[in-house]
Amino acid sequence: xxxxxxxxxxxxxxxxxxxxxxxxxxxxxxxxxxxxxxxxxxxxxxxxxxxxxxxxxxxxxxxxxxxxxxxxxxxxxxxxxxxxxxxxxxxxxxxxxxxxxx
Length: 102
Known about the structure:
Strand content: 15-25%
Number of helices: 4
Structural class: alpha/beta
Radius of gyration: 18 Å
Distance between the termini: 40 Å
Shape: elongated
């Protein structure tokens, strides 16, 4: 505080970098794609990779833990049934991708 008074400058506010949390399997969540998207979009992307059944269960039981659920369309029945997901914005994501209900 004394240093701030001497210099007349306030300490800049630290804003955490935004992160997109993607839940899916290792079949579709590819690290080279994540790295390229991260560079192109300018924010962090975290992949949570699980086996099929664990991924489906996680999506249904813990929707607050992810922003995007990436799965094949026929794997979404349980998660969709429980109202844990909603369609992605048209054109914003690949066809068939859904995100959690906010």
